[in-house]
Amino acid sequence: MLKKFKVSNFKSFEKDFTLDFSDTKGYTFNTECIKEGIVNNAIIYGRNGSGKSNLGLAIFDIIEHITDKNRDGAKYNNYLNAYSSSEKAEFYYEFLINEKVITYEYHKTDYKTLVFEKMTIDSEVVVEFNRFEGEQFQTNLKGAETLNSIVVDKQLSAIKYIKKNTVLEQTDINNAFNGFFNFIEGMLYFRSLEDRMYLGLDVGDKTIAEDIIQKDNVEDFEKFLNDAKIECKLSVVEKLDKKILALDFNGKHIPFHDVISTGTSALTLFYFWFQRVREANVSLLFVDEFDAFYHHELSALIVEKLKSTGIQFIVTTHNTSVISNDILRPDCYFVMNNESISPLSKCTEKELREAHNLEKMYKAGTFNV
Question: How many other CB atoms are found less than 10 A from the CB of residue 243?
Fold first, then answer.
């Protein structure tokens, strides 16, 4: 699980910006939102331009040099903060994997170029590489003793190089090291706004409708839409020698994507990725503006759907109707600006209880945000 994340000199984050999922409270309701003392379900609020999208991009920057999964370099233009005098962005991650605390920090001068890496497992430094001091990294991982430790390519991660070129011994430390890679490779970011982009978790190039048909999920998708209060009947029809998804109006078929609303289109995209969450080993899900086109009741339903998977997820929104103790709890709702992010539980001296109306309190200015 992701326990803590910190970034500086990246896009809108000039100075240290820290997201801490380990600062939880002892609430006795919605306890499933917390796992092993770490926030498992998080909703982030912030005004337009507060950096919510950039936070997602920052967390998923690690995808580029650790995995071979899908990435979108265009989203990482203007990489460094315009106000900073530093020539490198700094990233810090803290994970709980295989009951061990793993920290991984690195510095980059741009999206591709690594100048520093350091990994610790339970406070023991297992890999360190400072390119300002030379082209040789240091590691004490069992099984990597004879590995050539010279890495000239500045776009090549030392820990990825170790992973790809060694057969590590079976130790608790090495198992945690391998678990780290499994976690990163299972990370998924997507958004359903104008560009509908995603990062991580390759899935191929099929259309959403083709995927639903090929996986025999038409009936399940129909139920999903009906549960979301979109009453419809779906069918598969042939058009130009190709199977397409259609709405069935008492035997009259109209291609699904020809008539659906923007909101239903966004919901269809969510369903597509929701299947991956249920089928694949997704470790961390980040959905930017997850309910941009949804009715407030649908927003609450989607959060419940995500909670049912048990995975760690982070979603961003402007919709205050889902700030409710019926859905999550005060230490799982985060509010942010360009300089900081905090859970609601830390934004007031008032003792928050299950009976409190968090949305009403938020709109009344109870929380210092």
Answer: 13
For the domain spanning 2-201+281-363, the CATH number is 3.40.50.300
Task: Specify the domain boundaries for CATH 3.40.50.300 within the chain.
Answer: 2-201+281-363
pTM summary value: 0.92
Report DSSP letters for 9-72, one per residue: SBTTB-S-EEEESS-----SSSGGGEETTEE-EEEEEE-TTSSHHHHHHHHTTHHHHH--S---
Q: Structure tokens of 313?
A: 């997820």
Q: Is 75 helix (H, G, I), strand (E, B) or coil?
A: helix
Average pLDDT, 10 consecutive residues per value, the chain (369 residues): 98 95 94 97 90 95 93 91 94 97 98 97 97 95 95 96 95 96 94 71 74 93 92 90 90 90 86 86 91 82 92 92 94 93 94 94 87
CA distance 25 to 346: 10
Give the Cα separation of 120 and 101 in Å (integer). Answer: 8
